[in-house]
Amino acid sequence: MGLAERLHEISLPGGAKATLEKELETARIIEAHSEQSLPQITQDSELQEVRSRVVPETSESKYLRLVMASPEAAIIDAYKDIEELVMDKIAPLLGVHANNPSVIVNELVRRELTDSATLNLFGVLRSARNVAAHQRTGISVDEALDYWDHIQNLASKLNFALGRLEVLARQKEK
Description:
mainly alpha
């Protein structure tokens, strides 16, 4: 059973429902039209040469490397980055002391620094991470790549809220 089959639907503001499976299918269609192949390295000497020329690994390249080894581990790692953003950067600016990132995201919504759709996306991606953590097999590379797209969207929304918090903090200092 794939990730999309385990997360059937989410409720959105206004009573609308969207199936994660439908969203993942749309992403698959887009990806199918823009696939790029990575060069294959066949010898250890080639690998050493490439490593000596490579710039530091980006979060995206790290994720792609992890996806190939274990889609489940990649999902867990990507969500961990979201939790670190929420707990290490956003929570201190909010002045909220909580052990649960959901409390922090709820507070962002309460203070109107983000919308309830962000909170819903956070919850869905947390649930998907839990599936990946407890169901150690059966998640496909495509599903993990779809998850990455959603995580990047969530990270953008949370970083926007972080920026708003930083502006408010600077205004208070004046």
